[in-house]
Design brief:
Blueprint (H helix, E strand, L loop, with lengths): L11 E5 L3 H13 L4 E4 L2 H10 L2 E7 L3 E2 L3 E2 L1 H11 L5 E5 L3 H9 L4 E4 L4 H17 L15 H15 L4 H8 L3 H8 L3 H5 L1
Parallel strand pairs: 1-2, 1-3, 3-6, 6-7
Antiparallel strand pairs: 4-5
């Protein structure tokens, strides 16, 4: 396997909103800017989409209703973070104070107060998607075929760290919390050659 990180397709923005008119406006606006979108009008629809489609980011209406009017945005947020801890979830709501506090405590990545301009939404989502795109895929495999043996993963990580530190082995020892012999062994080199 190559040490190069393979980039996957970014995936869609999943818009989870139960007001159809607003959902359509957001979807149309984002798609006109070149952002691929999937939609869901309920938590159940969102869960079904997440099970079959690659999703890069979730835009979530916090006050979706389920059953007897119980809010369940937090349920979907927790599922998303369990599925992929690096996938951003942006909460949107027309209720500023309690919802923002609830969402932040539930570890949402960002909050947008309705109404907001589509330009603001596009800029906000673009920033988060750029961050997702630049995040290395080697850390979290998405299926069983992508799981690396621990020693191979360890080597990729140590090599990358040493490159980031411009080959400064003293700094690599400090930042990785490893002695020079361990680093040399992981890299498949002698301690003398690594120290030079």
């Amino acid at each position: 396997m190559s040490n190069e990180t393979t980039k996957r397709p970014l995936g869609a923005v999943l818009i989870v909103e139960d007001q159809k008119e607003f959902l359509d406006v957001v979807k149309t606006s984002l798609e006109s800017c070149g952002i691929s979108c999937a939609t869901a009008a309920s938590v159940d629809e969102a869960l079904a989409t997440l099970a079959i489609e690659p999703v890069a980011l979730v835009l979530l209406d916090w006050r979706l209703k389920q059953g007897e009017g119980e809010a369940n945005g937090v349920h979907l947020l927790r599922f998303c973070k369990k599925l992929n801890p690096l996938m951003p979830v942006i909460v949107m709501s027309g209720q500023e104070f309690d919802v923002r506090t609830d969402a932040v405590l539930a570890q949402v990545d960002s909050f947008l107060l309705k109404p907001f301009s589509m330009t603001l939404l596009f800029n906000h989502i673009s920033c988060w998607l750029a961050r997702v795109k630049s995040t290395s895929d080697t850390i979290l495999p998405r299926n069983a075929n992508e799981i690396l043996p621990y020693n191979e993963f360890k080597k990729i990580y140590v090599e990358h760290a040493v490159r980031l530190l411009n080959g400064d082995m003293a700094l690599a020892q400090e930042r990785l919390g490893m002695d020079l012999n361990t680093i040399a062994k992981i890299l498949g080199q002698s301690p003398e050659s690594v120290a030079e």
